[in-house]
């Protein structure tokens, strides 16, 4: 598989099979992804891998709190800026509408939407999950390094027949994560990553988010002029 094919095939998978991921293969994937670019080679990513009984215990703990906190608890950081502006607001709104429409949940079905959103906190049934952290003293450039590392993970996963879903929404459960796992106080939870084998029969995995027209985000006037 070429890099171009992996980029085209990558998507956020929201339904996984029960097939287990070989721990050695998963570790190799995570290690190989560390070839990501990193300013000053600081390599700021920190990982906690959950599988087997550890993952099930963690899931059960979160599940026990979801009736009281169906949308999660208070997030540690804003996933989106408050009062998101255009064109980003419309893109985000359309993305949500299209996703729920793909699985037959109309806008007025608040309970159905809440239930589907809650699947985030079960890692969409994935047999493995990675919690990704970063030293609290790091700044935006290092956060971008973590993003580049995660992109490597997701593309290598595609190459190796695996599927993923990055989940910044796990910041809403940061207190539970810190209470459950041995994470140092100087590390902030950035996101979760569900990883496993795609459920090809589930309709939610047939949906792909669209992309804005390049004219909205690239100024290629100088290219045309040459």
- The CATH architecture name of the domain at 3-76 and 123-202 reads 3-Layer(aba) Sandwich
- Large-scale geometry: globular
Structural class: alpha+beta
**CATH topology value of the domain at 3-76 and 123-202:** NADH Oxidase
**N- to C-terminal separation?**
34 Å
Largest sheet: 4 strands, antiparallel
Low-confidence stretches: none
Helix content: 25-40%
Helical segment count: 8
Q: Reading side by side through the largest sheet, how are the strands ordered? A: 1-2-4-3
Radius of gyration: 18 Å
Number of β-strand runs: 4
Write the element-wise H/E pattern from the N-terminal end onward.
HHEHHHEHEHEH
CATH top level class name of the domain at 3-76 and 123-202: Alpha Beta
Description:
- This protein has 226 residues and is of the alpha+beta class.
- It has a domain at 3-76 and 123-202: 3-Layer(aba) Sandwich (NADH Oxidase).
- Helices cover 38% and strands 13% of the residues.
- The protein has 8 helices and 4 strands.
- It has a 4-stranded antiparallel β-sheet, with helices on both faces.
- Helix 1 (3-9) crosses helix 6 (140-159).
